[in-house]
Amino acid sequence: MPEISRHGAPIWVDLTVQDLPASQRFYSEVFGWEFHDAGPDFGHYQRITKDGHQVGGMMRAMTQDGQPLEAPSVWTVYLESQSIEETVHTAREAGAQVMVPAMAVGEMGTMAVLIDPAGAVVGVWQRGTFSGVDLPLSPGTPVWFESMSVNIDAALPFYREVFGWEPEFMAEDGTVVVEPHDGVRYPYVTANIDGETVAGLCDAREWFDHSQWRWYIGVEDADATAAAILARGGSVLDGPMDSPFGRVATVADPEGASFQINQPPAP
């Protein structure tokens, strides 16, 4: 039976690619991922696991009639919905665009893809038999999800209204308050679902020209992983650098799909 839904929490992440075998080889060599073909009925969608844990998915960019589609390679983060039709309707009313309307994926669940009012693409998933990612926080698995927003004033009320986020605001020194005060803008918002911190929303106007969701993969050694990515045709866009949350880097695979790696801080 499916587990209890956590409406608004990240539940899945997947990658659309041009060269599926090459992408599988890259991620397998760097992170030790294994791929499981869902078969022709699902367009040979690849479910990714690491040591038996659900990590995400990968698929070849295709048109609806099964023809190859030239499209940017990109990771998409999905948030959970208890009622996807209601979520899509509420999202549209709150200023989102609907890229992909709600569509069933066999008995596994129902998906949709939105563009939030700040311009970030975000998926939606309502579970059926499939309950999404596992979060053991071990190397090679997801450890964090966040939206880097160029319009946090539009994004924050959207995620509050549509996904039930209960935000806390964090200053650069790590101080957390319930609401910003005295006109001070806090660069980071942590989203809470039933008291559990599940995602982040960053005021990224100083660093980005468009809004985007991104995710972090746990690694044992950020520097060694960055070197492995470079050696296999990927790129390092920023870092590795130390942060209060460990050593992090922004990287990209050989097709240019970017993501983050995170080496946890020493105990």
From TrEMBL:
SUPFAM superfamilies per the UniProt record, alphabetical: Glyoxalase/Bleomycin resistance protein/Dihydroxybiphenyl dioxygenase
Listed InterPro entries: Anthracycline_SecMetBiosynth, Glyas_Bleomycin-R_OHBP_Dase, Glyas_Fos-R_dOase_dom, VOC_core
Highest taxon of the lineage: Bacteria
Residue ranges constituting the VOC domain according to the UniProt record: 9-127, 141-264
Pfam family, one: Glyoxalase
Name of the protein described by the UniProt record: VOC family protein
Source species: Nesterenkonia aerolata
